[in-house]
Amino acid sequence: MREGAQLTPAEAGNRYEVFHTDCPARDVVDHVTSRWGIWVLISLRSNDLRFYELRDSIQGISEKMLAQTLRALVQDGLVWREVEPTTPPQVTYGLTEFGQDVSEPLTDLFNRITQRLPPRSPG
């Protein structure tokens, strides 16, 4: 069973007011740019991952923060969640089409940063 919000494109001329505090688009931006949101989206760009695989791929994230971040990204429609009815349940996460669209420029940003940084000095 997959979970995730289904978002439809805004109608022409019906734009969000992202600078207003009650704008729903602002919440999505906050979740994407949160401390862990970016890392989750980039980790899921290449593969669908189970919870522990995702946790292990992002050094420094706690299970609690990963669960909170995933919950927000699923609710925003960026990430899907699939639960297999096994014991214990196997939960897999992946990017929705919306999540792929949002994570693409993030991946480009990280590629540009890592290509432009000077080489690390040994130490």
Mean pLDDT: 87
Number of domains: 1
Q: Give the C-level CATH assignment.
A: Mainly Alpha
Task: Determine the structural class based on helices, strands and strand pairing.
Answer: alpha+beta
Summed up, the helix count is 5
Low-confidence stretches: 6-12
Strand order of the largest sheet: 1-3-4-2
Give the helices and strands as they follow along the chain. EHHEHHEEH
Helix content: 40-55%
CATH topology: Arc Repressor Mutant, subunit A
* Biggest sheet features: 4 strands, antiparallel
Going by CATH, the homologous superfamily would be Winged helix-like DNA-binding domain superfamily/Winged helix DNA-binding domain
Shape: globular
Question: What is the CA-atom radius of gyration, in angstroms?
Answer: 16 Å
Record field, number of beta strands: 4
What's the end-to-end separation, in Å?
A: 48 Å
Annotated CATH architecture:
Orthogonal Bundle
Fraction of residues in β-strands: 5-15%
Please explain how this structure is put together.
It is a single chain. By secondary structure, the chain is α+β, with helices and mostly antiparallel strands. The chain has a single domain, classed as Arc Repressor Mutant, subunit A (Orthogonal Bundle), CATH 1.10.10. Helix content is 46%, strand content 13%. It is built from five helices and four strands. The chain has a four-stranded antiparallel β-sheet with strand order 1-3-4-2. β3 and β4 form a beta hairpin. The longest helix is centred in the C-terminal third of the chain and has 20 residues, at 97-116. It is globular. It starts with a strand and ends in a 7-residue tail after the last helix. Residues 6-12 have low confidence and may be disordered.
